[in-house]
Amino acid sequence: MVNWGVIGCGGIAYRRTIPEGFINAKNARLISVMDIDSNKAKEVGERFGVEYSTNIEDILSDSRIQAVYIATPVYLHKEQIIRSSLAGKHILCEKPLALNSKDAESSIEICKENKVKLGVGYMMRFHSLHNKAREMIKNGELGEIVFARAQLSCWYPPISGAWRQDPTLGGGGALIDMGSHCLDLLEYILGTDIETVSCFADNVVHNYKSEDSSLVMVRFKNRAHGVIDSYFNIPDNSSKNRLEIYGTKGSLLAEGTIGQSSFGEMIAFLEKDSKGYDASQMRGIGGGIKIEVPFVNIYQSEIEAFSSAIEEDKEPPVPGEIGLWNLKVIEACYKSSRNKSQITLKRSD
Q1: How many other C-beta atoms lie within 10 A of the C-beta of residue 10?
Q2: What parts of the chain have a pLDDT lower than 50?
Q3: CB under 8 Å to 234, separation ≥6 — which residues?
Q4: Adjacency order of strands within the sheet including 242-247
């Protein structure tokens, strides 16, 4: 059993990771939470029956706590990772890992020096339908993958003090906040790195400093193409957060699997026999095979997997290096948008 502390217990920690992850995890025990908002710290502590504080040192100095979950605004991540590693705590940090790749790289090095594990919160990797899609692609059931799309958008109007609307606090807007999940997820499911990006990042509706609109085109190392669309200006129920994967033997179409939910559905359209050219290009409506998989709560699975890595002294399921690479891809996207150019990356960059 791994004892945990939570640094920053509002937002995603309060909505999802604590109630669905820590409380249900079989190999994790929540000891304490902290938040600079004393009312929030008290509310969360009392709701879940754990100790609470407004001082990070109360968690870092607690010898009972072996690991911390950092769910604070992005500009605080580097400092809190450093302080946690110096205190000997293993760290699961929400994405993005830092404001930029340079800070992420130094955070990784400091954790290595202090012999603590560092993981990143890409919880969508734990969705059972995403893992089924990954398995089907690996087994060749979709043939050669040629195109994939990941969508994650919401309505996020101007809010006073919102750190995601200020790039100095969050690193950017819709792209780094939501598009980063989609970029990582497509690489994970397809099992290949992004090689080239071309991006538009703009303010189309809202007038805050961060972009409210982002569209990224990518080419993967296996030559497949991809599109990632993330917007802060589409009403929630109008964005169905679709995942689409197309290959030479069929496709996978999912709705509602991308995002904070562990639910959603996925339909497979598989071609049993290769066919010649059909000039009429007739297509049926509906049909397909609904993919049935055991339900997995993505937050519970995430916490259990990281806790197991600590107990068994193995690499975290989503190590810090994944977060570093994702930031390099994001930075290339922003550079592409600024320069109106294609950017090619190498994993060794």
Answers
A1: 18
A2: 349
A3: 153, 154, 155
A4: 289-290, 265-270, 250-255, 242-247, 145-151, 225-231, 213-220, 194-202, 343-344
The predicted structure's pLDDT at residue 236 = 95
The domain in which residue 57 lies consists of 2-123+299-318
DSSP class of 233? B
The model carries a pTM of 0.95
Taking only the tens place, the pLDDT of each residue in 240-298 is 999 999 999 999 999 999 999 999 999 999 987 666 666 556 566 677 999 999 999 99
| CATH code, domain carrying 143 | 3.30.360.10
Task: Report residue 206 as tokens.
Answer: 């809202």
Both 238 and 267 in one domain: the answer is yes
Whether residue 70 is found in the same domain as residue 12 = yes
Q: How far apart are CA 97 and CA 120, in angstroms?
A: 7
At a CB cut-off of 8 Å and minimum separation 6, what does 296 contact?
126, 127, 128, 262
Same domain, 206 and 117: no
